[in-house]
Design goal:
The complex is a heterodimer. Chain A is mostly helical. Chain A has a domain of 148 residues: MetI-like fold (Orthogonal Bundle). Chain A has 15 helices and no strands. By secondary structure, chain B is an all-alpha fold. Chain B has a single domain, classed as Orthogonal Bundle (MetI-like fold), CATH 1.10.3720.10. Helix content of chain B is 73%, strand content 2%. A two-stranded antiparallel ribbon of chain B has the order 1-2. In chain B, helix 12 packs antiparallel against helix 13. The longest helix of chain B has 34 residues. Chain B starts with 13 loop residues before the first helix and ends with a helix. Classes of the chains: A mainly alpha, B mainly alpha. At the A-B interface, helix 1, helix 4, helix 5, helix 6 and helix 8 of A face helix 1, helix 3, helix 4, helix 5 and helix 6 of B.
């Protein structure tokens, strides 16, 4: 605090409270809509205080089979698909990036710079710019409507490889020398020295990549045509057909709550690593 | 990039084994498809996908002669400028005040960062619901005030809808980076200016804002990339490019032409144009990152 300015402090709090309220408003509306029946919501304006049908709506969304205009598939299955895909993407990314960063930093071998740049270039090719051909590859490999198709094309990550590379470069050389003197080979060194040291970076990446995996939309939209393999983020969009009253908005909003909960929990509970992960991956 | 370890292991095959999973994935799912996009952009396929002929740059000529594509460029430009400007301005305002307060700063931070976790598609659905012409809370309130709101018919309102949803989702990210940037500005500079009699407003524009410019520039690039590529789900969930094609941003058009209209050559040519844009943005970003180190 540079100086005392009570008025400015008051304005600061007011602006922040206003900001928090505006940011939270859509969440509040979602929550309220998820606690009413469909009939109440279509009689515009919908109430602004919560009703008492939250559990009914959550259960109906969870089990599926309502009478809305859009898809009425059970959300339970979608949540499973989302969870499995997000975890496979997260763990897969971290695993293959740890290995490749280890190889790039700790070994001298021909074409090392070439490999490094090849990984680097993939940063420039987000899935959005190559959807057609990537879809064809996945179709040719018979991976449509499978967890493999949903996850493997997304697990190559230049960001994670860079983060681990940066981190490994800061690990003191003395540790390698000591490990060598004690007769430890590269894999032993990786497992017993490097992995434990990387725990914080791994936690930070876990948060970022879990959210990335959970929130995928375009890719599942392309590679899944079977309702059994829809992740929830894609499933919720299929529940609405235009912005009109024929949708069961109460169930859609209950689904939205379910779809938001896992990533929001990860962000809030792992806030420290989340912030570190964001800042580190962008360096 | 030339950083190296003084001590390294020597092994002829182990590094390749370690690299294998990463290399296989990027070759199969990145380089091969990207190459295919380049090749296909020079071909014309028939309607059944059974035969093709080489057409050179005809796909690109057709693309830029197509009014809807040029319009999509304009739409994307308007959308990106609005999203980047509003997202940065709002987040900076909040960050400046959050940096000031002592009490409750942690709470404000927690309450402001969670939209980052919300999927773009879900964000699109939430905002669509609030502004839905017949049932939405906000659209109802607007109608009461005499503003007729129907984003299904009015393209400016549809654009406003996707801009709001996209900005809302991105504020958290910008806020965190601005806050970190503000906290790294040496307090002694601010105190010196205060002693010289500069008020908060003057201090912000003459000291804080210039010192924050690396963060601002970095976020500007990130936000443009976000508006270009990560907002597909918002558009698809809330307006589906409509009304007409008035909110069909470039990424939406690639998807629509390739998967709904089945125009492979045209879609591949659009992919190539997008790749050029990403490469340009990435180069800008990395040139800047190198400069940031000396700052």
């Amino acid at each position: 605090m540079v100086e005392r300015r009570p008025l400015l402090d008051l304005i600061s709090h007011l602006v922040l409270i206003l900001g928090v309220m505006v940011v939270a408003f859509p969440l509040y509306i979602t929550l309220v809509a998820a606690t009413h029946t469909a009939d109440v919501i279509v009689q515009a304006p919908m109430p602004v205080v919560p009703g008492n049908h939250l559990l009914d709506n959550l259960i109906q969304a969870w089990r599926g089979g309502g009478d809305g205009a859009g898809s009425t598939a059970p959300v339970a299955r979608m949540m499973t698909v989302s969870l499995v895909s997000a975890l496979v993407i997260t763990v897969g990314k971290i695993a293959i990036s740890l290995l490749s960063a280890f190889a790039i930093v700790y070994f001298r071998f021909p074409f090392r710079q070439g490999v490094f740049w090849a990984i680097f270039v993939t940063l420039m090719l987000p899935v959005e710019v190559r959807i057609g051909p990537t879809y064809q590859v996945v179709a040719d490999l018979g991976m449509l409507n499978s967890y493999a198709g949903l996850t493997i094309p997304l697990i190559a990550s230049a960001t994670a490889t860079f983060l681990f590379r940066q981190f490994f470069l800061t690990v003191p050389d003395e540790l390698v020398e000591a490990a060598r003197m004690d007769g430890a080979g590269p894999l032993r060194f990786f497992k017993d020295v490097l992995l434990p040291l990387s725990a914080t970076s791994i936690a930070a990446l876990f948060v970022i990549q879990f959210i990335y995996g959970w929130n995928q939309y375009l890719w599942p939209l392309l590679v899944t045509t079977n309702e059994d393999m829809y992740p929830v983020v894609m499933g919720i969009k299929r529940m609405i057909s235009g912005g009109d009253a024929a949708n069961e908005w109460n169930v859609v909003m209950a689904t939205a709550l379910l779809a938001m909960t896992p990533p929001a929990l990860v962000v809030i509970l792992m806030q420290k690593w989340f912030v570190k992960g964001l800042v580190d991956t962008e360096k | 990039m030339a950083a190296e370890k003084r001590v390294q292991f020597r092994n002829a095959w182990l590094p390749w084994v370690l690299l294998a999973p990463q290399v296989v994935v990027i070759v199969v799912f990145f380089f091969w498809p990207a190459g295919q996009a380049l090749v296909q952009s020079l071909q014309q396929h028939d309607a059944f996908g059974t035969s093709f002929e080489w057409v050179g740059l005809e796909n690109f000529q057709r693309l830029f002669a197509d009014d809807t594509y040029v319009a999509s460029f304009k739409t994307t430009a308007v959308f990106s400028v609005l999203v980047a400007f509003l997202g940065l301005a709002i987040a900076l305002t909040l960050a400046v005040f959050a940096d000031r307060v002592v009490k409750g700063a942690g709470w404000y931070k927690t309450l402001l960062i969670w939209p980052y976790a919300v999927a773009p598609a879900v964000a699109g659905v939430l905002w669509l619901f609030m502004f839905a012409p017949s049932v939405g809370v906000v659209s109802h309130a607007l109608n009461r005030m005499g503003i007729e709101w129907n984003s299904l018919l009015n393209s400016n309102q549809a654009m406003a809808l996707i801009v709001m949803a996209a900005v809302w989702k991105q504020i958290s990210y910008n806020f965190l980076f601005f806050l970190a940037g503000l906290q790294s500005i040496p307090k002694s500079l601010i105190e010196a200016a205060a002693m010289d009699g500069a008020g908060p407003w003057r201090r912000f524009w003459t000291i804080v804002f210039p010192l924050l410019s690396p963060t601002t520039f970095f976020l500007l690039v990130i936000n443009v990339v976000y508006a270009f590529f990560d907002t597909f789900a918002i558009v698809d969930a809330s307006t589906q490019g409509g009304p007409g094609k008035d909110t069909a941003i470039l990424v939406y058009k690639v998807y629509y032409d390739g998967f709904k209209a089945m125009d492979l050559g045209g879609s591949a040519a659009q992919s190539v144009v997008l790749m050029v844009i990403v490469v340009a943005l990435t180069v800008v970003q990395f040139r800047f990152v190198e400069k940031k180190v000396t700052y």
